[in-house]
Amino acid sequence: MSKRTLSVLLPLILPAMCAFGGVRHFDFLYEAPTAAPGSVEMENWITWKHGSDPRFDQVDFRHEFEFGVTDRLQLSVYVTDWNYHSPDQEGFTLSDAALEAIYNLSNPVIDPVGLSIYQEVRAGDRLVEWESKLIAQKNYGRWIFAYNATLEAVWEGDDLDERESEFTQALGASYEISPRLSVGVELLHEFVFPDWKDYETIRNVFVGPNVSYRRGNWFVTTAVLAQATDTSGEADFQWRTIFGVGF
Amino acid sequence: MKKLLLTCLVFAGCETANYAPIVTMPRKTDATKLQRGRQLFVHRCIECHTLPPIWKYSNEDWPKIVNDMSHRASLKAADREAVIAYILAARNM
């Protein structure tokens, strides 16, 4: 089949083959259900972090393609992660690309707790990151409660010789006002280990509201989390918006 | 603490049973199909929204709702039939 034929046929075939991967009710937490097999979805992430001690602004962009593989397995490709940081850099910098897999173990409605396991690998010319996550969720009527425990190890720098790890607990609650609109709250509790050691005892807590709206084959979810601790060098707040569209 | 945990588990059990009851006495319907329908109902619908109570809509409304949602939920024709069969069987228990 020629490339020309393929380029004509693909836009016709794909919408018939694919469906929506799923809506995100949270920005900083993952949910236990995985995408339906055969579904394809693109998610665009924008995260703005602002700090005042010292003053900085950082904007991170992620572009994810999510594929439902089986009833329980979902794979994602983050084609580009890029960012802007002021005052440290001029212009935008391409950071890395990433692969992610989520495997669902139990259902948040019919089982006592919905559980999934998550693995992500990020790699760039100055960054390698290994992130593992346990995702727990329970649905009660119109309420969704989620908990994520995340362990990540990072190697950074020209020779990847700068090491850092982080353990994060995240809690979220979301209430569905209507099938299209949800509001909720998210909380992050971070334990940062520079050089994989805990001698600085860095603990950060971020908390804030979220809103999620979906219609047809798209959704948008936004959350603003403010720092409840007083860690210098960390963001005062972080604002993340995720826009997803199913093909 | 144990009492609180037990209360929560009982509460969770009651809540989920209301939203996706197990159909134990299928009449003129394949039990495997009903199991598959329940499985799809509790997995696919919650990818986008919380699970609607099966008593919220009428027997006449449910087939239309499931058909309308089937593309977004990636339900094939046999899947749609199974979900509708499960919902109607659960409603009429």
Task: Please give a structural write-up.
Chain A is mainly β and 247 residues long. Chain A has one helix at residues 3-17; strands at residues 40-52, 55-68, 73-86, 92-104, 114-124, 127-140, 143-156, 162-178, 181-194, 202-215, 218-227, 237-246. In chain A, strands 1-2-3-4-5-6-7-8-9-10-11-12 form a 12-stranded antiparallel beta barrel. The radius of gyration of chain A is 19 Å and the shape is globular. Chain A starts with a helix and ends with a strand. Residues 6-18 of chain A have low confidence and may be disordered. Chain B is mostly helical and 93 residues long. Chain B contains 4 helices and no strands. Chain B has helices at 2-19, 31-44, 61-69, 77-91. Mean pLDDT of chain B is 81; it is low at 9-15. The chains are: A mainly beta (247), B mainly alpha (93). Chains A and B meet through β6 of A and α1 and α2 of B.
